[in-house]
Amino acid sequence: MSLEELIAQADERGLAASGVACLDRCVPLLGGDDEALRPLWGTLAEGPDDGDWGEVLRQTREMLDAAAGEAGDGCAGEAAELARGMLATAPLDRSGTALRQWADGCSDGALRIHLLLDGAGDVDLDAARREGCADGLSPLFAAELRRQTAVLELVAAHGAAGLRSALEVSTEGRRVLRAAVSRRSRRDA
User: Fold this and answer.
1) Are 21 and 166 in contact (CB under 8 A)?
2) Distance between CA 137 and CA 121 in Å, rounded?
3) How many other C-beta atoms lie within 10 A of the C-beta of residue 138?
4) What is the pLDDT of residues 92-147, one digit of tens each?
5) pTM confidence score
6) Burial level of 61, CB count in 10 A (0-12/13-18/19+)?
7) How many domains does the chain have?
8) Residue 165: which domain range?
9) Are 12 and 95 in contact (CB under 8 A)?
C-alpha cells in the first residue's frame, strides 16, 4: 500500500504516530536531543481523549524553541524551517481533520527535508507518496519514504503495541538524518 493510502486509512493514533515520527527524525534540525519527543510518544499509548497530548505538545514546543539556534544558510536553513513548521502546525487536539492534515503535512515536510539534505534533483513528491515505490530515488529520500510507510504499517497492525517498533524506526532515521546534516555542513564549510 502506498504512503498516501496509509495516511488516508490511518486512525487517530496512527496519524499522531506518523506526525510525531516524522518530527522526531527531524529533531536534530531543531536543536533537540534524542529524548526531545519522548513525552509526546508517551501520550500515544492512550486514547486521544485520555492523554495529555495538548499540554505535552506545548511543553515540547517551548523546549525546542529554546533549544533552536539560528537556521543555517542554504539547504540546512530551509530544512530547519520546514522542521519548525512541522512542530508549529501540530494540533493541540489529537483528533479530527486537523490531525490528518498535520500528519500529511509532516510526511511531505520530512520528505522535502530529506531531498534537500540529499541534494537530489527534481523528484515528484506526490507521485512518490502515491505510488509508494522508492526505486530510482535518492538514497536518503527513499529511506525516509520507507520509514514513513513502516511507522504507519506498524501502528495499523499492532495499535499501541506497535509504538515501540515505530519509535525504533524513527530513532534509526534520526541517526541517519543527523549524519546527513553533519556531512552536509562539513561539505559546505
Assistant:
1) yes
2) 10
3) 17
4) 999 889 999 999 999 999 999 998 888 766 777 778 888 867 667 888 999 999 99
5) 0.92
6) middle
7) 1
8) 3-188
9) yes
